[in-house]
Design a protein that fits this description.
The protein has 716 residues and is α/β, with parallel strands linked by helices. The chain folds into 4 domains: 191 residues, 2-Layer Sandwich (Nucleotidyltransferase, domain 5); 121 residues, CBS-domain, CATH 3.10.580; 178 residues, 2-Layer Sandwich (Beta Polymerase, domain 2), CATH 3.30.460.10; 111 residues, no CATH class. The protein is built from 30 helices and 17 strands. The strands form 5 sheets. The protein has a 5-stranded mixed beta sheet with strand order 3-2-1-4-5, sandwiched between helices. Strand 6, helix 12 and strand 7 form a beta-alpha-beta unit. It is globular and about 85 Å long. The N and C termini lie far apart (67 Å).
Length: 716
């Protein structure tokens, strides 16, 4: 199987659509799990949320005893049919080879697990209960109002046709198709991952107790975190821009190869870039690359002419590149996936700024993150995107264990979110063309807003995105095309593991889609508003980051938005008036908790982020992250006292607490939230958190005090 489609072992974090599974069923000598013998095993694979029919297992088994006629009336298998069939140990070996480490899926699978375990014990074969899901229980969760949850009733509800009923393979195929059809139904109930499905099934105590009384095995297991995987933190702490060679060596495409070889020997470099102008000041598309290996291959195949040949004839195009702001692990992943040893480096505007070679990365080892880049950038559909995204919690947990600054970890999550959004946009655009809607009517950019745009995503991001396009009026032909694109992008991200934004901040909605002219008009409207309630969701637009498309459109938009907001002080003032921290304290000074947890995004992160953003807009600060904004405010002596410094330190602490809690919850099958379990914190952490939350109660007053004062005045 190619690397890009290879399915990783499932954990509680793996989306249901991305698990590698095998639908299974057994036919037996009777319905009593404590006595029944297996006479047939059927199994079929499930990958990327679909039944894979190319490989299947259908085995008859001689039970070593007569098959009762009542059982034969159900499944049609008689003693004659199993005469000469293999024994259970033979079948079990084939079954284990077929399913491997995949999750088992079946209807009332507790029965099948019980009889299989009993057969193994009888044959003195080792037994380890496999991880499994029961479609009967999943259907009960997805639609508790069905008259019953038999295979036939569930299939009828899902409009599925069953063939080969009461044969092991036929029922396995039916269970597999039901499982695939249940995935979107479960997603509607906010059950997306294997762990969440397991926890939801374990909550069906009546059904589980009934199975237990019948002698069935427990159909699901309680999710557990996988073994901790250490990583080399170097690749996660350094960005490409700090490792690249700059300025890059560029030669004209007409330069003879002999002279280029002499240049490479003299400079002790393993590659040169090639362009018509021979200068390092153009967009990345203008260049090709020639490496030592390219030269050796050409000399080997055409030695007589190679040395006098124009180097442009040898150069490889298009040039493979990476952003200077990307983390080093992403460069490792790209080189590994594409089997190259050199990457051109570009800035955010797509201009050439340097070259990165494999030699620059020799110290780095980042296998887990390599897989992130490899799979996201190469995913072919939403299921593969979901599989890629599900690997992120493991990387995050490892980085936290390596004591990497949690704000850097949040930047990595944000990079992956932008990468996911970019790939989803590419796939959505391809889908548009397949459906006959044609190519994009004009240049456009997909923007990631909010925490993702700031580089501060946590493990519970929703979709905060927008589209800006070059030309067109609201509800015009261009806008209607991008509305369709936005809808497909939203659907793709939702399936991939990034849910729809509950506040509607998505490009599929008209308010977050428009031409550059339309967006400028909106900005004018925002800065002239007189009521803060009219500015809902406006603030997160000031955290935007382009994820796909024409970055110049995004740059023009953000420059205009900041210029106009800075020129209208009342606008920043109104944004500041929207700040509310809520009171998380009891009358006795303790924290008000819900199920033992505190929403530290609402009471902690939000006032810090909003303070930094609002004051940055007011004072013309263009930094995007909360950390950079606070540091810039302090450097300008705007609120440079203990309050700002406490926010700076508190921001790192809060991000770290949330990431640790969220990764624990993901693997435990608990829906991820912004709430932290207070009693799970060390006593000193509780004290620090309480002190910070109390201090942040005055954040709105601080913003008002700093809104109109000058740096010189504030420093006195």
């Amino acid at each position: 199987m190619p690397k890009e489609t290879e399915l990783k072992p499932a954990s509680g974090a793996t989306p249901l659509i991305a698990i590698a599974a095998a639908a299974v069923d057994t036919e037996t000598t009777g319905p009593d799990a404590t006595k029944a013998r297996v006479v047939q095993i059927g199994a079929i694979g499930i990958a990327h949320g679909k039944v894979v029919r190319q490989a299947q297992l259908d085995l008859l088994i001689d039970p070593g005893e007569a098959i009762p006629s009542e059982a034969s009336l159900v499944h049609g298998i008689t003693d004659t049919d199993v005469d000469g069939a293999g024994s259970f140990p033979d079948a079990w070996a084939q079954f284990q080879e077929f399913v491997g480490d995949r999750i088992l899926v079946g209807h009332s699978i507790g029965f099948d697990l019980a009889v299989l375990e009993r057969e193994c014990r009888r044959a003195r074969l080792p037994w380890k209960k496999p991880r499994a899901l029961c479609v009967r229980l999943l259907a009960t969760i997805a639609n508790p109002n069905l008259a019953d949850h038999s295979l036939e009733t569930i299939a009828e509800w899902l409009r599925l046709e069953i063939t080969g009923r009461h044969s092991a393979l036929g029922d396995a195929i039916a269970a597999g198709n039901i499982f695939a059809a249940l995935i979107p139904e479960l997603r509607k109930r906010n059950i997306r991952t294997l762990g969440e499905a397991e926890v939801a099934c374990l909550a069906l105590s009546d059904a589980l107790e009934a199975g237990h009384r019948a002698g069935w095995a427990e159909p699901v297991s309680r999710p557990q975190a996988p073994a901790f995987q250490p990583v080399d933190p170097y690749a996660y702490r350094h960005r490409v821009g700090s490792l690249m060679s700059s300025p890059p060596v560029v030669v004209k495409s007409t330069k003879p190869t002999r002279q280029v070889i002499d240049l490479m020997v003299k400079r002790k470099i393993s590659s040169v870039l090639v362009s018509e102008r021979g200068t390092p000041d153009q967009a990345i598309e203008a260049y090709g690359i020639v490496t030592e290996r390219d030269l050796l291959r050409r000399i080997s195949s055409d030695a007589e002419r190679a040395f006098d040949m124009p180097v442009g004839n040898i150069a490889a195009r298009p040039l493979i590149s990476i952003r200077a702001a990307a983390f080093a692990y992403r460069a490792i992943g790209r080189m590994d996936r594409l089997k190259v040893r050199h990457l051109a480096v570009r800035d955010e505007g797509g201009m050439l700024v340097g070259v990165l070679s494999a030699r620059d990365l020799l110290r780095l080892r980042a296998a887990a993150a390599i897989d992130l880049d490899d799979t996201i950038e190469h995913a072919r559909d939403a299921a593969e995107l979901a599989a890629s995204w599900s690997m992120l919690p493991g990387v995050v947990r490892s980085l936290i264990g390596e004591a990497i600054d949690p704000r850097v970890v949040a930047e990595i999550i944000s990079d992956e979110l932008c990468s996911l959004t970019r790939r989803a946009a590419v796939l959505a655009e391809q889908q548009m063309q397949i459906e006959g809607h044609g190519p994009p009517p004009c240049a456009y950019a997909v923007l990631v807003l909010g925490s993702g745009g700031r580089g501060e995503s946590l493990m519970a991001p929703d979709q905060d995105n927008a589209i800006v396009f070059a030309d067109g009026e609201p509800d015009g032909p261009e806008d209607r095309w991008f509305k369709k694109l936005g809808a497909r992008l939203a659907d793709m991200l939702d399936v991939s593991g990034v849910p729809y934004c509950k506040g509607g901040v998505m490009a599929s909605n008209a308010a977050f889609r428009g031409s550059l002219s339309t967006w400028k008009g909106r900005v004018e409207d925002w800065v002239r508003r007189l009521r803060p309630e009219d500015l809902l969701n406006v603030d997160i637009v000031y955290d935007l980051r382009p994820a796909h498309g024409d970055t110049t459109l995004a740059a023009q938009f953000v420059e205009y938005a900041y210029d106009r907001a800075h020129a209208e002080p009342v606008f920043a003032k109104l944004l500041g008036e929207q700040m509310t921290t809520g009171n998380p304290f009891t009358v006795f000074g303790g924290l008000q908790l819900e199920n033992g947890r505190l929403d530290i995004k609402k009471h902690g992160l939000f006032p810090i982020v909003a303070t930094a953003r609002t004051l940055a807009i007011r004072h013309g600060i263009r930094e995007r992250s909360t950390r950079a904004r606070l540091e810039r405010l302090i450097a300008l002596d705007i609120g440079g006292g203990p309050d700002m410094k406490a926010m700076l330190a508190g921001h790192a602490m809060l991000v770290g607490l949330l990431l640790a809690q969220q990764t624990r919850d993901i693997y435990a099958g608990i829906p991820v939230s912004n709430r932290v379990e207070i009693n799970a914190l060390a006593r000193d952490q509780q004290a620090q958190l309480k002190s910070l939350i109390k201090r942040l109660q005055s954040a709105p007053d601080l913003v008002r005090d700093l809104m109109f004062a000058s740096p010189a005045t504030l420093g006195q």
